[in-house]
From TrEMBL:
GO terms for molecular function: iron-sulfur cluster binding; oxidoreductase activity. Gene3D superfamilies: 3.10.20.30, Nucleotide-binding domain of ferredoxin-NADP reductase (FNR) module, Translation factors, YVTN repeat-like/Quinoprotein amine dehydrogenase. Keywords: FAD, Flavoprotein, Membrane, Transmembrane, Transmembrane helix. This is Na(+)-translocating NADH-quinone reductase subunit F. Residues 236-331 form the 2Fe-2S ferredoxin-type domain. Residues 334-474 form the FAD-binding FR-type domain.
Length: 610
C-alpha cells in the first residue's frame, strides 16, 4: 500500500500545501488589518441629535388604506432631515409623505445630504450616482442603490438605498483588501463568503487525509532503530554469498539498519538507481533461511515466484539478527573498474553510443543482457559541454536546458551492454538515451547520469561496477522474438549479435519501434544482419503517421508484432520472448503476450523505468 499512498500523498500534498500557504498568508493579512478601519469607523460621523418628530397630518392607517400594495410594516423614518413614513411589504420598502401620504422618492440631493451627514474626514464627495448594476461591493442588497465616492486616501465609498435612503455599506481600500484575502481564505471565489462551499470542504477533507497519510508514511518509512545511534544497537553479522552459492564475505552490521545500508557501509554497493528509495527495484537480494513477509514495495518489484524463494529489496529489508543473504552481482559488487572513453558517437539525436576501453580485461561474466553501474561523479557543467553534431543542431536547440547542469552528489546509473564484449574487441559498448527533463511549462532537471555521459569525450576516464542483472539469452535453440523500443535497443542488439556470431540457427525476429526514421538507431546495421543471416528478420515499426513510407510498418510495435507474426504463428508455446523498452511499451507487450496465452517463463524482459 505504501508506494501508491506515497504518490498520492505527494500530489495531494502539493495541492493542499498551496492552499495551506494561501490560508496562512490570507489569515495573517486579515489579522493584521485594523477592524475599525475595515469597517470605515474612522470616517463615520458621530450620531446626530435626534430631531423632534413633527405632528403628522395624516395617520399611518389612512396611508396604508390608500396603498395599492400590501403593507406589512409602517414606521417613522428620517430621509436626511425630512420626516417620512417608511412602508414595507416584507421584500422592498418605500417612503410616504407624512402630510399627504404621497410617495417620496430618494433624490440625488437627499443622497448627497445623507452622505455628508454620515462622513467625517478630508475627502470631498463626488456627485451621487444611481448605479445601473449592483457590484460585488454591495452584494447581498437588491433594489436601486446610490453610490457616493469620497476623494480621501482610503477611497471611501458610501452606498445608499434608493428605496428608503438608509446607508447600506461603507467601503474603503482596506475593506477591499480584506474582502479579497477573505475570498482566498474561504476559497469562495463567488464572494458569497460561504463556509460550506464545495472547494473548502474538499480542501478540508484533503488536508485531513494528508495528515493521516503523513502519519502512516512516517511510521511506514522509519524504523525505531533509526532513532538510536548505531553504536548503541546490538551488532549483527551478515554473511554474503554469490548467486552460485560461494561465500563472498561477512560484514558487520547493527540491528535496525537495512541490508542495503549495512552493505554500503562495508563498501558493498548494491545496484541502485534510486539510492535506497524502494522505487528502482535494482537492489534485490535473496534471504537464505527465513525471509520476512514481503512488503508492498517488494511485491511491486519482485514477481511472486521470486518472492516465494526469499527475494527482497535490500533497501527495505531490516537487519534484525545474524543472517545470510545472496547477491546476484557476486564479487563484482566490490569491484570498481576504470575505463577510458574511446568514442562517443551520436547514433540518433538523443541516443549516443559510448565505447569504453577498460584498464583491466573483462571476464566472461560480461554477457549480453547484463548491465553496468556507471559511477557518476558530482559535477557542474555548462550547456556547451554537451556536444552534438551539426545535423542534430535543430533537435538540440529545441530543448530547453539550463545554462548550468549540476549534479551535487555522486550517483550511480545502470547501462546495458549494447554489443558483446568480444565483438567490441574487449571494450564496453553502451547506448544511452539523453533525458532532457520534462520540457515545456513543467521544467524538470535533465537526467544526472545521461547528462554526465553526454559530456564525455574520447580520453576521459569513467568508473563503473558490474556486470549485474539476470536478463540473459536462455540456453537452447528455441525460436526467439525480440521486441523493443527506445534505449531498449541496447541489450537486444547485444543479444542478437551474440546469437548470430555464435552461429545460432533458430529463427530470430527483431521488432523495434521508434517514432520516426531519425530516432531509429542501427537501422542499416540490422538490415545488413538480416541480409547476411537467413534465420534473422528485422522489422522497424514507426509510430508517426508522416513516416508511413513504402515498405515501412506503421503503428505501435506490440500491435505490429501481433499482426505481422504472433496472430498467425503456428506454435507460440515453442518461442522465447525478449523485451526491453519504455515502460508503456513494455507493459502493453507483456499484457499482449499474456492475452495470447504465453507463459511468464517464456518471457524475459529488462525494465529501464524510463
Ligand atoms: C537494468 C537497467 C538497464 C538500463 N540500461 C540503459 C541503457 O542501456 N541505456 C539507457 O539510456 N538507459 C538505461 N537505463 C536507464 C538508466 O539507468 C537511467 O535511468 C537513465 O539514463 C536516466 O538516468 P538519468 O540519471 O539521466 O536521469 P535521472 O537523474 O535519474 O532522472 C530520471 C528522470 O527524471 C527526471 N527528473 C530528474 N529530477 C527530477 C525531479 N526533481 N523531479 C521530477 N523529475 C525529475 C529527469 O529529467 C529524467 O527524465 C537502464 C536502467 C536499468 C534499471
Ligand atoms: S535501491 Fe532502489 S529499490 Fe532499493
Amino acid at each position: 500500500m505504501t508506494p501508491w499512498i506515497q504518490k498520492l500523498h505527494k500530489w495531494v500534498g502539493l495541492i493542499i500545501g498551496l492552499q495551506f500557504v494561501i490560508w496562512a498568508a490570507s489569515g495573517l493579512v486579515m489579522s493584521l488589518l485594523d477592524t475599525a478601519t475595515v469597517n470605515n469607523q474612522h470616517h463615520l460621523a458621530p450620531a446626530a441629535q435626534a430631531l423632534p418628530w413633527p405632528e403628522a397630518e395624516i395617520s399611518p392607517a389612512v396611508i396604508v388604506a390608500r396603498e395599492s400594495r400590501p403593507v406589512q410594516m409602517v414606521e417613522t423614518h428620517w430621509l436626511a432631515a425630512e420626516p417620512v413614513y417608511r412602508l414595507s411589504d416584507g421584500v422592498s420598502s418605500w417612503l410616504a409623505d407624512i402630510r399627504d401620504g404621497s410617495s417620496v422618492p430618494v433624490t440625488a440631493a437627499d443622497v448627497a445630504a445623507i452622505a455628508a451627514r454620515d462622513y467625517v474626514g478630508d475627502g470631498r464627495p463626488a456627485s451621487p450616482e444611481l448605479m445601473q448594476e449592483n457590484t460585488w461591493e454591495v452584494r447581498g442588497h437588491t433594489g436601486p442603490i446610490w453610490r457616493v465616492a469620497f476623494s480621501d486616501d482610503d477611497a471611501t465609498t458610501l452606498y445608499v438605498s434608493g428605496q428608503d435612503g438608509t446607508i447600506l455599506e461603507r467601503r474603503n481600500d482596506t475593506w477591499r483588501l480584506f474582502d479579497f484575502v477573505m475570498m482566498l481564505h474561504f476559497m469562495d471565489y463567488t464572494r458569497q463568503q460561504d463556509f460550506n462551499n464545495p472547494l473548502i470542504v474538499m480542501a478540508g477533507a484533503g488536508g485531513l487525509w494528508l495528515a493521516l497519510s503523513g502519519i502512516w508514511l512516517f511510521f511506514a518509512s522509519f524504523r525505531l532503530g533509526e532513532f538510536i545511534p548505531a553504536r548503541w544497537r546490538p551488532r549483527r553479522e551478515l554473511t554474503v554469498y554469490g548467486a552460485d552459492g560461494g561465500k563472498l564475505r561477512s560484514v558487520e552490521s547493527h540491528s535496525g539498519d537495512t541490508v542495503y545500508l549495512a552493505l554500503g557501509r562495508n563498501g558493498l554497493q548494491l545496484p541502485s538507481n534510486c539510492g535506497g528509495g524502494q522505487s528502482c527495484g535494482l537492489c534485490v537480494v535473496r534471504v537464505r533461511g527465513h525471509a520476512p513477509p514481503p512488503s508492498s514495495a517488494d511485491r511491486m518489484h519482485i514477481d511472486a515466484t521470486r518472492l516465494r524463494s526469499g527475494y527482497r529489496l535490500a533497501c527495505n529489508l531490516p537487519v534484525t539478527s545474524d543472517g545470510q543473504i545472496e547477491v546476484a552481482g557476486g564479487a563484482a559488487l566490490w569491484t570498481e573498474r576504470v575505463a577510458t572513453v574511446v568514442s562517443a558517437t551520436a547514433v540518433t539525436p538523443f541516443l549516443r553510443e559510448f565505447v569504453l576501453a577498460p584498464e583491466v580485461p573483462l571476464g566472461p561474466e560480461f554477457q549480453p543482457g547484463a548491465y553496468l553501474q556507471v559511477h557518476v561523479p558530482g559535477y557542474r557543467l555548462q550547456r556547451n559541454d554537451l556536444d552534438h553534431p551539426e545535423l542534430h543542431r535543430q533537435d538540440w536547440s529545441s530543448l530547453s536546458l539550463p545554462e548550468n547542469l549540476v549534479c551535487k552528489e555522486p550517483v550511480r546509473r545502470s547501462y546495458s551492454l549494447s554489443l558483446p564484449v568480444e565483438k567490441a574487441g574487449g571494450n564496453v559498448t553502451l547506448l544511452a538515451r539523453f533525458s532532457p527533463g520534462r520540457q515545456g511549462k513543467k521544467q524538470q532537471p535533465a537526467g544526472k547520469g545521461s547528462t554526465y555521459l553526454y559530456s564525455l569525450k574520447p580520453g576521459d576516464r569513467v568508473c563503473f561496477s558490474g556486470p549485474f542483472g539476470d536478463f540473459a539469452i536462455k540456453p537452447g535453440a528455441k525460436e526467439k522474438v525480440f521486441i523493443g523500443g527506445g534505449a531498449g535497443m541496447a541489450p537486444l542488439r547485444a543479444m542478437v549479435h551474440s546469437l548470430l556470431e555464435s552461429g545460432a540457427e533458430e529463427r530470430i525476429h527483431f521488432w523495434y519501434g521508434a517514432r520516426n526514421m531519425r530516432e531509429a538507431p542501427y537501422v542499416e546495421e540490422m538490415e545488413a544482419l538480416a541480409r547476411k543471416h537467413a534465420n534473422f528478420t528485422w522489422h522497424l515499426v514507426l509510430s508517426e503517421a508522416a513516416e508511413h513510407g513504402a515498405g515501412l510498418i506503421r503503428g505501435l510495435v506490440h500491435e505490429a508484432t501481433d499482426e505481422g507474426l504472433l496472430q498467425n504463428h503456428p506454435d507460440l508455446k515453442s518461442c522465447e520472448f525478449y523485451l526491453c523498452g519504455p515502460p508503456a511499451m513494455l507493459a502493453a507487450t507483456r499484457s499482449l503476450l499474456a492475452r495470447l496465452g504465453i507463459a511468464e517463463e517464456q518471457v524475459a524482459y529488462d525494465d529501464f523505468k524510463i
